[in-house]
Amino acid sequence: MAALSDQLVAIAILVYLVAMICHAAEYALAPAPARKAAPERELVGAATGAGGVAGEPPVATPVAPRGPSPAIRIAGRLAVVVTVLATLVHGAATVTRGIAAERMPWGNMYEFVLTLSFVGVVGWLVLLWRHPEVRKLGLFVTLVMVLLLAVAELVLYVEVVPLMPALQSYWFQIHVSTVVFASGLFLLGVVPALTYLMRAGYEDGRRSFPYTLARRLPAAASLERLTFGLHAFAFPLFTFGVIAGAVWAEAAWGRPWGWDPKETWSFISWVIYAGYLHARATPSVKRNVVVWIAVFGFATMLMNLFGVNMFFEGLHSYADID
User: Fold this and answer.
1) pLDDT digits (tens, 9 = 90+) for 244-280
2) Backbone angles phi, psi at 43, to 5 degrees
3) Are residues 154 and 25 in the same domain?
4) What is the residue range of 98's domain?
5) Comparing C-alpha atoms, which of 191, 53, 90, 88 is closest to residue 134?
6) Structure pTM?
């Protein structure tokens, strides 16, 4: 089962890569919408034979906008189908890893990344099912999946080992599952956050890279609302996960909080995300500033996941990598 899981992860990376190429084809070939919505019009003359009446001004009739070509539509639909296939392979890799370990697959950093990325892509497919208009974000979502799984496989990979004694508790399922789920949603939420910053710059008239990359994305206001919705859903789950961790620490180590590096960075992330939600509810704070807070919050999550596990010693150092 462990070998099968490893093979499935490699296959999932390749299938996500194919999905990313299909999304890139749709994204690159689709016509960019005009910055200012103004329907094209053709003038119908007032002369005889033009449908007008002599002496009256010309009549402006709207011209129907051209839709995407069949090839572009096929590329977009194929990208979604391939993403679903990659997600199924990804999920099978996660399940077989858990079967091989005879426990939930969250015992080290490799397994944590494998699971949270799966949660993120499943959340993306649910979001896409409810809001098909955000499909072009799939280019960035699949890129994130390829990068995360590649880093997990090439840098973080460890052999299946038994769960260390400190983690052998029913709180393992409660605390870690909640944090994994919230982290996956934060991972998904940072995609519209970053694309919002690019799209907002493009709508403000900036033409340098990366702003021109966003000219085919949904409107900035829609991306900002999507960012808020994902973070508003993830934050209470993350809060519960932090509280559950404190309860588990009290039972395991005799104290609920000891400013261990991971506890400290979890608190920093919690404060920043709370600040994001507060700033989002404050009309005087500009939307660009609000979204940058969300991006900074995810940067602290990455620090907590990679930096703390790899460069700090503490009670939560479960990376198990050399």
Assistant:
1) 988 888 877 777 777 788 888 999 999 999 999 999 9
2) -85, 130
3) yes
4) 1-30+70-163
5) 191
6) 0.82
